[in-house]
Specification:
Length: 326
């Protein structure tokens, strides 16, 4: 079997032209041995960074970018270290630019384990046959969204869902277009009250993330917005949301939301029973060390609990009704 490597050095020690290639012949070894020889050869010859060469042996973790990158890097960096120590394999957090990118990266195999919202998790599983739901937070089985309003909007807390009609004619922003708690379910509850996006002043905005929604409504750029209730709570506690400028006017009924989804080939790549071990590692996380405590605090939860695909059947139904799943 011949593999071709570029930008290598010839036997004389001189660098070959960047456009030149030469074959490395791997003799009749096992496939595992051939992979080992190839990876080592490529790394030594400088034809491929070692980290990239060994990516097949690294568990790549991703997440929908629902909050600011600094917070996400801190959270998933700590989680990657924790999982690596527990599972005995390299684990690396791979950021993505937006919600659809997380779904796409999971489908193509660029990500192995992803923290999805309800909608993106359903989309990812429909596009990746055999993908498995592993776990959700203890707060995800009965999750909620909140509608927030700028103090100058004149809006006061709504007494019921029917009063969402009062939002007609207001400047309104959702979060990401593919967000469950920042777009899908808020739009669903608005529709039940007879409110459609074209009834807002101008076109509704899409802030891109929950913390951005808070910032836009607090600044007055939009009068009203909808977002994840857990992020709202965390931002109030952190002092980044000022209740004197922006406040909750309505909390939605509950629904299932975020969850961990794993690709179907992890047992083949990391060994028999790996997916089960991964699920156990997540569910057994407890705040008994400083790092684990930080992870759970950043997730806004006390622990992870088992979850199943059927828990998100209602999300799939709403997604199809609103044209987000076809």
């Amino acid at each position: 079997m011949d593999y071709y490597v570029s930008r290598a050095r010839s036997k004389t020690g001189k660098r070959v032209s960047p456009n030149s290639y030469f074959p490395i012949r791997l003799m009749s070894f096992s496939s595992a041995t051939r992979r080992t020889v190839l990876v080592a050869g490529l790394a030594l010859l400088g034809g491929l960074p070692f980290q990239a060469a060994s990516s097949a042996d690294t568990l790549r973790v991703g997440a929908i970018p629902d909050q600011n990158p600094e917070r996400l890097n801190r959270l998933y960096g700590a989680l990657s270290t924790e999982l690596s120590e527990t599972l005995g394999v390299p684990v690396r957090y791979v950021p993505v630019s937006n919600y659809p990118a997380a779904v796409s990266a999971f489908r193509t195999g660029a990500l192995d384990l992803v923290w999805f919202g309800g909608l993106t998790g359903v989309q990812a599983r429909l596009q990746t046959p055999g993908a498995r739901v592993l776990a959700q937070r203890d707060i995800d089985a009965k999750f909620t969204s909140v509608f927030i309003a700028n103090g100058a909007s004149g809006l006061r807390p709504l007494k019921g869902q029917d009063q969402l009609k009062r939002l007609r004619g207001k400047r309104f922003t959702f979060g990401s277009e593919s967000s469950t708690s920042g777009r899908l379910m808020p739009q669903h509850f608005l529709a039940q009250a007879g409110v459609t996006p074209d009834q807002f002043q101008g076109r509704p905005g899409f802030s891109g993330s929950h913390d951005a929604t808070i910032a836009l409504v607090q600044s007055g750029a939009y009068e009203v917005g909808a977002l994840n209730s857990q992020v709202w709570k965390a931002q109030v506690e952190d002092g980044r949301a000022d209740p004197a400028k922006v406040s909750v006017i309505w909390t939605t009924p509950t629904y299932a939301d975020y969850h961990w989804v794993a690709r179907p080939n992890l047992n083949q790549r990391f060994g028999k029973g790996f997916t089960r071990r991964l699920k156990t590692a997540l569910i057994e996380l407890r705040p008994d060390t400083a790092r684990r405590r930080t992870i759970l605090e950043l997730f806004g939860a006390s622990r992870f609990i088992p979850a199943q695909a059927k828990d998100y059947a209602a999300i799939e139904t709403v997604g199809r009704e609103l044209g987000k799943i076809r």
